[in-house]
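Late entry, written up from scratch paper. The run itself happened at the end of the previous shift, but nothing got recorded in the book at the time, so transcribing now.
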Amino acid sequence: MATDQMKARRRDVIVAAACGVFVAGMVGMAYASVPLYDWFCRATGFGGRTQVATGAPWRFEPEQNSIEVRLGEVVTVNYVVTNLAARTTVGQAAYNVTPTTIGLYFQKINCFCFTEQKLKAGERREMPVVFYVDPAMVKDWEQDDLNTITLSYSFYPVREPSRPVAEGNTTSGRL
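Output as recorded:
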């Protein structure tokens, strides 16, 4: 009978140890879940966390932070960009309009984002955007509560193509 008691005691110790390890693991996972979730969201963009990208070394800001626009009215908004680098840099903008459902009605007529921008060291430049909000938006029930549209830009560096040191002769004496 002593052997049966020893086996039962050993089994109880193993079960207790397994439960202790399980509890410790759960406490550890609870402790690590916040930074792990934060890392996951930053890596995947899940939960609305945006990706962090390296942009052009420029300061970019609107002349006005907000404006009131009537539907169908053509509006020009000026942005000011300054190259903060000590060298000439080239960048191109990507834009975003929120809420995303307004994209169908937000019509850009002219925008600096359609072309690459080259700025000398320290250069400051005004960049206009010309747009209107299509009056057809009124017929879209998804826009009934809309009272704010946000237009945002990100500038990304563009590498200039490398220039050859010397141009070679493009014709050959062979036939």
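The chain has two domains: 2-46, 58-157.
(Scratch paper discarded after transcription.)
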